[in-house]
Design a protein that fits this description.
Strand order of the largest sheet: 1-2-3-7-6
CATH superfamily: Thiamin diphosphate (ThDP)-binding fold, Pyr/PP domains
Number of strands: 7
Strand content: 5-15%
Largest sheet: 5 strands, parallel
Mean pLDDT: 96
CATH class: Alpha Beta
CATH topology: Rossmann fold
């Protein structure tokens, strides 16, 4: 899928956000760089081209809702929120510091964050409840949720998937960051997910698969979801854990590992 739009400015933002992610995690001395780097294009397209939102009024009634279910990827969300004007760039340097606004997982007290997340498997349930309430109250906002692929091991994900299909929540869009790695190793060795698209189809969802690092494909998928009537949409975004830094890509150790000073220097050169 390709809608032939000019996304050059998004490409620039993506590189900047990746630099911010690895820098803030390095300063914190801990965090989750791999899964944060893998979802940058998804979040950047969502916040710059799809979501109805207002950084000057984060709680405006007509806003679309976004839930980061894979809460350990908070550094990516924080960098995107800073880029969008919700928080100041200087806050990023205080990631995980005592008393900082930005802790290891998103907290509702942060402007632009809808709910506190981190316990994997819960985000789709929360998003489904929000989408259902919008249907009941005839409110026009849409709800988006980003999940990890390892997170799909959780039974609660599939309970929520049944509920969303049953209630025909076409105002709900789920995105799966399909990077193939979770904290204990390869997803297909820990708990085989394939055939993943067929599973979601069987649960009654409108299923799309994209290159999760191709902003044209991501944007086209989000636009396609707008036209899916009578069923929720799931976008399976095929990504690389640690995307953008050659020595981090597809390396499971960088799921939850900070960069050394030398690694940071090398990574920033690659992302220049």
């Amino acid at each position: 899928m390709n809608d032939n739009q000019d996304f050059s400015e998004i490409d620039d933002r993506v590189r900047k956000i990746r630099r911010q992610i690895i820098t803030m995690i390095h300063k914190a001395g801990s965090g989750h760089p791999g899964g944060s780097l893998s979802c940058v294009e998804i979040l950047t397209v969502l916040y710059s081209r799809i979501l109805r939102h207002d950084p000057k009024n984060p709680d405006c009634e007509g806003r679309d809702r976004f839930i980061l279910s894979k809460g350990h990827a908070a550094p990516a969300l924080y960098a995107v929120l800073a880029e969008g004007g919700y928080i100041q760039d200087k806050e990023l340097a205080l990631l995980r510091k005592t008393g900082s606004l930005l802790q290891g997982h998103p907290d509702k007290k942060i402007p632009g964050v809808e709910v506190s997340t981190g316990s994997l498997g819960q985000g789709l349930s929360i998003a489904s409840g929000i989408a259902l309430s919008a249907k009941i109250d005839s409110r026009p906002f849409r709800t988006f949720v980003l999940m990890g692929d390892g997170e799909c091991d959780e039974g609660q994900v599939w309970e929520a998937a049944m509920l969303a299909s049953h209630y025909k929540l076409d105002n709900l869009v789920a995105v799966i960051d399909r990077n193939g790695l979770q904290i204990d190793g390869l997803t297909e060795k820990i708990m085989r997910l394939e055939p993943l698209s067929k599973k979601w189809t069987a649960f009654g969802w409108h299923v799309l698969e994209v290159d999760g690092h191709n902003v044209n494909e991501i944007h086209a998928a989000f636009k396609s979801a707008e036209n899916a009537k009578g069923q929720p949409t799931v976008i399976i975004a095929h990504t690389f854990k640690g995307k953008g830094v050659s020595f981090m890509e597809w390396i499971g150790a960088f799921h939850g590992k900070s960069l050394t000073e030398q690694e940071l220097e090398l990574a920033l050169k690659e992302l220049a």
